[in-house]
Write a structure and sequence with these properties.
Shape: globular
Distance between the termini: 36 Å
Largest sheet: 6 strands, parallel
CATH class of the largest domain: Alpha Beta
Strand content: 15-25%
Number of domains: 2
């Protein structure tokens, strides 16, 4: 899919002067590059919000979005050719080159580029001398699979063999493609293509610290928490007593742990709604008790109704989740979140106030938390979460973070 966004009206920010130095006045011209995933998720919505927030600050944003679905079906490139295009996709790169010519973008804001946009987008940026701001939504490029996990084990970011340990177990579409991707990242890093990246932006301080431990361009590392656009005028006072999991049905999200947990006798009368898509949905649906409902992907009003009537949202991740906006969705409707005490979730959940941080994959902790959460406690924590959301993650607060990052990364004076 090819998407373009035209200029947006808004207050002026700053731009490049003819001498190459910044000046206040016209907005930045930004080319946003993103490859959508097969299944929709939080990252795609975060990328869209980033474009909206930049536009609200007066920047001129052009979106160039492609999607993984292009490589499925009768019009997809041959299977044998796709790994080659993953490294270098000439047609896509030519599109981007022409867009750069027509828009005169001051910088590229890059998110996921796999598989359609291709790894050689960094080489193109270097060739065109366009600075890149790379948003880090997961642990790529240092982790080919993006989760810094292999065979259910969390990997040490300081271990130089992480890519090859992941290749051995095939964390990204099997061993062959994981190896190919790891080799591709090694190739572009070795030849200096990442020199074009002037800032690597993690979505939490915890994520930034992990990249820093790996020695990943520490002088260019920054952190900027996701923003949120509050739509509901007030939190919900409804509570039907059910709990909700909202996310992809994959091992690292802890869905198997949750399915096993709900077979415990103490949860027999407590409803659980599993909302989302993914490879484990079919398998786990067949082993869960009747009080677990599987509803597939939900969005819009359907999601709003599901969350508005729940007791709390559950997020039992098994990896160092950088930062999930599932917590934001819960807070907006005045619902607490119970999450694993890992990664960036520790930065957005105030234990005992806006939710609970629990030991990952520990049945006793989770059983006690679920059975012990009464309606009044849930309402109190949910309202505290709503207040936290409104105070900490507004679009204006996000733009302040972005301005600081651009200033530090490109040497621009604000």
């Amino acid at each position: 899919m090819f998407c373009r966004g035209g200029p947006f009206a808004g207050p002026p920010f700053f731009s490049m002067s003819p001498s190459g130095h910044p000046k206040r006045g016209e907005p930045l011209r930004i080319l946003q590059l993103f490859n959508r995933y097969l299944n929709p998720g939080g990252e795609e919505k975060s990328v869209a919000r980033i474009a909206e927030d930049l536009a609200s600050a007066g920047h001129k944003v052009t979106r160039y979005w492609r999607e993984s679905a292009e490589w499925k079906g009768p019009h997809a490139p041959p299977k044998w050719r796709q790994p080659l295009l993953l490294w270098r996709n000439p047609a896509v790169l030519e599109d981007i080159r022409l867009l750069q010519t027509t828009t005169g973008a001051d910088l590229w804001l890059i998110h996921n580029v796999l598989p359609v946009i291709s790894l050689d987008v960094y080489r193109l940026a270097k060739e065109l001398r366009v600075p890149v701001i790379q948003w880090l939504h997961n642990y790529r490029p240092m982790s080919p699979g993006g989760t810094l996990c292999a065979a259910g084990l969390r990997l040490d970011p300081e271990d130089p063999w992480v890519p090859w340990k992941e290749a051995c177990v095939g964390t990204w579409h099997g061993r062959l493609l994981t190896s190919w991707l790891a080799l591709g990242y090694w190739r572009i890093q070795r030849r200096g293509d990442f020199d074009a990246v002037r800032a690597w932006v993690a979505v939490s301080e915890a994520m930034k610290a992990i990249f820093s431990r790996a020695g990943w361009y520490p002088e260019r590392l920054h952190a900027a928490r996701h923003s949120w656009h509050v739509q509901s005028s007030a939190p919900s006072d409804q509570d039907d007593g059910h709990f909700v999991f909202l996310g992809r049905m994959v091992e690292t999200k802890g869905v198997r742990f949750l399915a096993d947990l709900w077979r415990h006798p103490s949860l027999r009368q407590i409803p659980l709604v599993m909302a989302g898509q993914g490879p484990l949905a079919g398998e786990l649906r067949s082993i869960t008790p009747p009080n677990v409902q599987w509803v597939g992907h939900v969005d819009g009003e359907e999601k709003h109704r599901l969350l508005a009537r729940c007791r709390a949202v559950l997020f039992p991740c098994l990896w160092d989740e950088p930062l999930s906006t599932v917590a934001y969705e819960a807070y907006e409707l005045g619902k607490p979140i119970l999450a694993s005490n890992l990664g960036g979730m520790r930065e957005i959940i105030v234990h005992g106030s806006t939710g609970l941080l629990l030991k990952a994959a520990d049945p006793a902790s989770w059983l006690n938390a679920v059975t012990g959460l009464d309606a009044e406690s849930a309402r109190r924590m949910g309202r505290a979460g709503r207040a936290w959301l409104e105070e900490n993650v507004s679009p204006s607060a996000w733009n302040e973070q972005f301005n600081r990052i651009v200033s530090l990364a490109l040497g621009w004076a604000l």
